[in-house]
Every structure is written in C-alpha cells, then in structure tokens.
C-alpha cells in the first residue's frame, strides 16, 4: 500500500504539494522575487487591501459563469467586502498555484475549499471548516461493472493533482486490500472538469472527489454520472493562510462566525450544496 503511488501514478502536471515545496527556491533562482513574507492583519490594514486567491473551476465552491466569479466561496467574498475595513483584491487562478502562493506570501488567503490535512498544516494554517468534505467515488451511470468499493480493484482512478484527495488514496487502497483487491492506476488532472470528461469518455473508470462536488456534478449530468460510496473518513475544507498568521486567522474566523450567527452562511450552503452543515467544528486537527 505504501508504495502504490510510485507503482501506479501517472503524472500530467506537477502537483500542488511539490509546487508549494519548491516555489520559493525556484522563484529566487529565476529572479522573480527577492523575498516573500505573509502580511499580518495589522500590515494588511496599513496597506489598505487583502489579496484573496480563489479557484477558477471548482464547482460549487468557485467557478466562473458568464465572465463573473460565482459559487459558495465567491458569495462569501462578496460578504467579506462588506465586513472588512479594507479593500479585497481577488485573483482567480488554477488550483495548482493557489496554496504555493499563500505559503510564500504572494496571496494573503486562499478562499477556496482547501481540505485540511496533516501535511498541509506544516506550512499553512486554516480557518474554521466551511463544509463537509468526505470523499466518495463517482462512476459512469451505465457502468455495471462497479456496484461497490470492491469493484474498484485494479481500475483506473482520476483525481486532481496536488489535492488532499490524492494524498488520502491510501485509505481507499487499504479498503481494497482488506477485500483482496488493489488500487489501480492513478491519473492526475489539473482540474476536475478534465477528470470528469475523461471519465465520461471511458478513459478512466472512476473519479474521487468530495461529496459536495460530486452532488453538484450528478445534479448537472444525472444521465451520465452516478455517485458511489465513501472512500475516506471525515474531512473538512477551510480557507488557507500562511502558517501561524494568527491575527489574520482570527479576523477570518470572526467573519465566518458572524456569517453563521446571521444565518447567511447556512443560507449559502443550502443554495450551493443543497443542505446546511450546522454541526461543523470550529477547528479541526487532521489525522491524515
């Protein structure tokens, strides 16, 4: 199980985790930056703006429709503009550049559904969780060869590069091994829409993503895809900031708490997720 990634992994792009680890040295060598430092809340107030990074295509959390950013997190960014005593400058970019940019101080916060993991907490801090992120698999609806987790043995799985879902595939590998099976080839994608397209075309057998994202997918294409079973334990997404930036973390947690108290937070969850998660923990210490 431990070496399954080296045996099965097909790399399409450099992973976000690797990018985060090498971003600063590479940028220094290229002469692109001389230094990077995360700004504290006081420094943000002094300069007059907060730099927010959001993802370009991660439905229903963030995506672009008719040229405008939309989704759960983008609706919260709109509320944050009303709450913050400074300007909110938003940059929309692919997932693979977001966490690296936060860890090096290029962006102050990643307002995206970044799943809290033990590895990520080494270089990042997180706000209060914003939703449930238990991992499920999705398959082609007409694929009768997959009816349960044991049927995933040896089959090709698609997952986003640099994602926490990739890092927690050993959980699925362990489930399969207990049933006498094994994890098949893993194909990484820059974005989930690419992964879903390949799944629909039969290039992969299933895709692993959070239950919220998969509900949104099946809601849009019920004749093409079907959700399977959970392939991970509990996990939660949150907004990411630089490690130990406690003042900014407290400010953002205050904003989230006030959105919950007003009911706006749960209203947006129902709009975008189809349900409200009223029992989310205030903080989360990941096992994986």
From TrEMBL:
Q: Where is the Solute-binding protein family 3/N-terminal domain?
A: 49-276
Residue ranges of every copy of the Ionotropic glutamate receptor C-terminal domain listed in the record: 49-275
* Entry's Gene Ontology cellular component terms: membrane
The transmembrane segments are none
Q: Which keywords does this Swiss-Prot/TrEMBL entry list?
A: Signal
Among InterPro entries, the record links this protein to: Iontro_rcpt_C, Solute-binding_3/MltF_N
Task: Please name the Pfam families in this protein's record.
Answer: SBP_bac_3 (PF00497)
Superkingdom, taxonomy of origin: Bacteria
Q: Give GO MF terms, alphabetically.
A: ligand-gated monoatomic ion channel activity
- Name this protein carries in UniProt: Amino acid ABC transporter substrate-binding protein
Which source organism does the UniProt entry give?
Answer: Candidatus Raskinella chloraquaticus
